[in-house]
Specification:
Elements (H helix, E strand, L loop, with lengths): L5 E10 L3 H12 L6 E14 L2 E14 L12
Length: about 80
């Protein structure tokens, strides 16, 4: 069985509702351009504040996906 190689990328999702929605949105959007997603690891939460009010929730994630050399010729091609 051949060994697999995985690439890890950082992404940030935003939502006006919650950190959970921000994470879900980020993963769903990433799935449109990355194939074979394996793991989404939440690494950080933060908030955008304007005029003393929370206006957005931000969730930072690390996504791992299987590297396919037939699709991506080098590690930076996304």
């Amino acid at each position: 069985m051949p060994e697999s190689i995985y690439k890890v990328v950082d992404i940030i999702g935003t939502s006006e509702k919650s950190w959970e929605d921000a994470a879900k949105s980020a993963v769903e959007t990433a799935c449109k351009s990355l194939r074979d997603l394996r793991i989404a690891e939440v690494t950080e939460f933060d908030l955008k504040v304007e005029n003393n009010k929370v206006v957005a929730f931000r969730t930072k994630l690390k996504l791992s996906f299987k590297y396919d050399p037939s699709v991506q010729k080098n590690w930076n091609e996304f």
